[in-house]
# Entry
Amino acid sequence: MPSITRARNAALCQGIAEPRQLATILVEDRPGRHPTIVLGGFVPDSTEQVYLMRRMLFQSGSVYYVNYSRRGFSLELLCAQLDDLIEELTVTRGARPVILTVSFGGGLLVEWLRRARAAQRSADIAGAIFVSPVACIGDVLDPLEPKPKTLTARALKPYFDPPDTISRSVVERSQAIFSKMFNSGAQNRAALLGLMNAVEIERFLREVIVSIKGLDHAGASERVRALGQFVEPGEWRTPDCLGLTEAPTLILYAESEGSVLTENSPTRSALEGDIQRLFPSGECRVVTGGSNPVQHASLIFHHLQFLPHVEDFYRELKARKVRVAA
# Structure
């Protein structure tokens, strides 16, 4: 936990959020000027999502894993915790972090950047990486579709349907769907061999399933419904929000996003069509895998395909620092 907790405490004292909604922030300390903060997707925990990239990330500094509470979620509290963590890193430790986001985590970062820009506060980060960003509800639920086409949409749609009270069966069904999707990817164990032995692979996969099924009713409901609080990309284009950050930004989409993203994903359309206005130092790439198509946010089973792009980003960040110093 960061030693600076000013924003977090304010959110709790004002009744904006509850202690049960606090994210857990874990750290693996390493020397370096550019620590990485990881904001994961809906599931699993961020510690699992970037597990196979850790060694590369350690080359630039410590890695901070933001694991959302399994008992609740608050967008305001998460933004406050991010405020505190970045203040501690920049002011107390003299380090400027890179924020690496996965799927839903991309929406959280956009929301944090948007709020900072609207409040005329500087987002003091060294860079941002978005892997398969989901930054509004239209990215996963197409309002023009009478019935959801993807497993992800089927899992999430009941959270936004009337009545407002989410039944326990809805949560259990969504957990079963996400577990099924992960287990389908887990058949590709060849991607993990060479980095872990068979026993380690089984333990790792088991931990992922535990993190998915460990969400209680409130944790699942509030985490999913936070997606409904994200503003549509059209509002990012307001004068108060352009551009979201001047820091170097890399957006990575998988070649096969169709199992999660809608065909008319507003976020993808905005980022691919207007990236320089939103992220003046931004670049958008598509990650491919040849005979094994890369899936949405698949940093576990397609880490070897994502890794070169992330390595390039950190390498360029280091070179950029050298050029500035010269």
User: Anything to note?
Assistant: Strands lie at 24-28, 36-39, 63-67, 98-102, 127-131, 249-254, 282-287. The CA atoms of residues 254 and 298 lie 8 Å apart. DSSP finds eleven helices and seven strands in the chain.
